[in-house]
Design a protein that fits this description.
The protein is α+β, with helices and mostly antiparallel strands. Helix content is 29%, strand content 34%. It is built from 5 helices and 7 strands; from the N terminus they run βαααβββαβαββ. The structure holds coenzyme A.
C-alpha cells in the first residue's frame, strides 16, 4: 500500500513536533540509534529547537500528524565540510511500508545536493529494511565497524554507507 505524505523541512518553531517524533523513535526503535530515550527525554525543548538549526531535519506528515523524520548535518572543518552525516531516520510502525521512508530520503538527498558532495551514514548490521532502502537510493557499503555500539544486550556492529552526489554544488570549505 502506498500513502501520500507531506515532507517538509522542520524549522526551530517546529521543535515540539520534532521532539515528539524523535522521542518516539528512541522509545520504539532503541536498537537503531546511538542515543537513548532516557537522555533526550530530559532535555529542554530549546535543545530540540537548536538541533533544527544545526541540522537539516525533514518531517513526514500524514495530515497534521508527524509520522517520520530524517536529518543530515554538514560536517564542520575545512577538509570535511563537503560531507554530511545522515541521522535520525525513522517512520512510526503503523505508517511503515507505505513510502514515507522513501519520500524522506528522497527529500533529504535533494536538499543535501545543494550543500554537500557526499552523504555518509551508519546503520546497525542486520537492519535489513533500512539497508535495503538506502541501497535503493544508491548508497554503497564501504565498511563495517565492529563493536560500534555497546548496549545492555551486548556489542553491535555498524555498517558504514556513503552516497556521492555528483551534481551537487562544489561545497565551499566553511570559513573561506
Ligand atoms: C527504515 C524505515 C525508516 C523505513 O521506513 P518505511 O516508511 O517503511 O520505508 P518505505 O515504505 O519507503 O520503504 C522503502 C524501502 O525500504 C525497504 N523496506 C521497507 N520495509 C522493509 C522490510 N520489512 N524488509 C525489507 N525491506 C524493507 C524496501 O527497500 C522498500 O523499498 P520498496 O518499497 O521499493 O520495496 C523504517 O523501517 C523504520 O523506521 N525503522 C526503524 C528505525 C530504523 O531502523 N531507522 C534507520 C536507522 S539507520
Amino acid at each position: 500500500m502506498s500513502g501520500s505524505f507531506r515532507i517538509t523541512r522542520l524549522q526551530p518553531s517546529d521543535a515540539e513536533a520534532f521532539r515528539t517524533i524523535r522521542l518516539a523513535a528512541l522509545r520504539t526503535a532503541p536498537e537503531a540509534f546511538g542515543s537513548t530515550y532516557e537522555i533526550e527525554a530530559n532535555r529542554p525543548l530549546s535543545t530540540f529547537a537548536e538541533r533544527l538549526s544545526s541540522s537539516a531535519v525533514f518531517g513526514a506528515y500524514d495530515g497534521q500528524q508527524v509520522v517520520g523524520m530524517a536529518g543530515f548535518m554538514q560536517e564542520a572543518g575545512p577538509k570535511v565540510s563537503h560531507k554530511a552525516f545522515v541521522w535520525g531516520f525513522y517512520v512510526e510502525p503503523a505508517w511503515r511500508a507505505r513510502g514515507a521512508g522513501s519520500a524522506l530520503v528522497a527529500a533529504l538527498i535533494e536538499a543535501a545536493r545543494d550543500v554537500v558532495e557526499q552523504l555518509t551514514l551508519t546503520v546497525v548490521e542486520g537492519n535489513d529494511p533500512a539497508i535495503a532502502l538506502y541501497t535503493k537510493f544508491g548508497f554503497t557499503t564501504y565498511g563495517v565497524e565492529p563493536r560500534a555500539l555497546k548496549t545492555s544486550a551486548g556489542y553491535v556492529n555498524e555498517v558504514l554507507m556513503t552516497l556521492r552526489l555528483p551534481s551537487g554544488a562544489d561545497a565551499k570549505p566553511k570559513g573561506t
